[in-house]
Specification:
4 helices, 0% strand, 115 residues, mainly alpha, elongated
């Protein structure tokens, strides 16, 4: 159970990194419109104050976080295989939690919004 919860935390972190990457791309795409309407949110202005000293390295940090998190989920989930013989039970235990979380994340029931 602790393996599944640890993997869930890494998957959540990876998805948060992906969300920031998409947000950053949206900001970049709509930079001109944002400068006109909301100049205080312009990240590329010379008068803009970064909130942390690492803000200038974004979205590189988000990419590293996402790739690192997925590597931990994929590679280190196999730690139970490293000692001894690999069998179906070890593989199932390693990836059952990841598979269930992926199915729950990807499954979105359709709702009828026409009424």
């Amino acid at each position: 159970m602790s393996t599944t919860s640890s993997l869930a935390c890494f998957l959540v972190w990876a998805i948060e990194c992906l969300a920031f990457i998409r947000y950053y791309a949206w900001l970049r795409r709509h930079q001109k419109q944002l400068e006109e309407v909301y100049p205080e949110f312009n990240r590329w202005s010379t008068t803009s104050q970064a909130t942390t000293f690492l803000a200038g390295l974004q979205p590189l940090i988000a990419w590293v976080g996402m790739i690192g998190s997925f590597l931990v989920v994929i590679v280190f989930a196999t730690a139970s295989w490293w000692m001894g013989k690999i069998d179906f039970r070890k593989v199932a235990v390693s990836y059952a939690g990841v598979s269930i979380l992926a199915l729950l994340t990807l499954y979105q029931p359709r709702t009828d919004t026409s009424t």
